[in-house]
Amino acid sequence: MRIDCVVNGEPRRADDVWAGESLLHVLRERLGLPGAKNACEQGECGSCTVYLDGKPVCACLVPAGQARGREVVTVEGLGDGDLHPVQRAFIAAGAVQCGFCTPGLIVAVHDLLARTPSPAEEEIREALAGNLCRCTGYEKILTAVRLAAGREHES
Amino acid sequence: MVLPRSEMEFLQPESWAEALAVRAAYPEALPVAGGTDVMVELNFARRRPPALLDLGRVAGLADWGTEDGLLRLGAGVPYRRIVTELAGRAPGLAMAARTIGSAQIRNRGTVGGNLGSASPAGDALPPLLAAGALVELASVRGVRRVPVAGFCTGPKRSMLAPDELIAAVLLPPDAGPEQFAKVGTRNAMVIAVCSFALALRPVSRTVGTGIGSAAPTPVRAAAAEELLVAELPWADRAALPEPLVRRFGELVAAAASPIDDVRGTAAYRRHALGVLAGRAVRRAWAEHRRGGVRG
Question: What number is the ipTM of this complex?
Answer without folding.
Answer: 0.96
